[in-house]
Write a structure and sequence with these properties.
Layout (H helix, E strand, L loop, with lengths): L31 E11 L5 H6 L5 E4 L2 E4 L7 H13 L11 E10 L6
Antiparallel strand pairs: 1-4, 2-3
């Protein structure tokens, strides 16, 4: 069953059981990504621009709370480092360990611009 993006889906004919995303048809995808570049680098090689692109805010930890700031002395990398440690330090992959990480750059494709 092939259905274009503009066509209506007859949900009554769709199987009633759960299907893993890996096996779903393309039309059911919410987003389509095109991988532009993939490489391995050490965590601490991240740039200020890349930290901002990751969504890290400028900020610092004030006790148990993260405090965003506009202080020019506090960059996105500071927020990224704190967030990284909050998520990964307990598992032995903290900022100070400087683990190797995958860097994957991609482009979001819209249905009308897929190639």
């Amino acid at each position: 069953m092939t259905i274009g993006l503009q066509e209506e889906m007859d949900w009554h004919s769709w199987p009633k059981h759960w299907t893993p995303a890996l096996f779903m048809p393309r039309w059911a995808s919410r987003i389509t990504l095109e991988i532009r570049e993939a490489m391995i680098q050490h965590l601490q090689e991240i740039s200020e621009e890349d930290a901002a692109a990751e969504g890290a805010e400028r900020g610092f930890w004030d006790g148990p709370h993260f405090e965003p700031t506009d202080d020019p002395n506090c960059g996105h990398m500071d927020g990224f480092r704190l967030l990284w440690d909050c998520i990964n330090a307990k598992r032995g992959h903290g900022w100070d360990e400087n683990p190797l990480v995958w860097v994957i750059k991609f482009k979001l494709l819209t249905p009308d611009k897929e190639k």
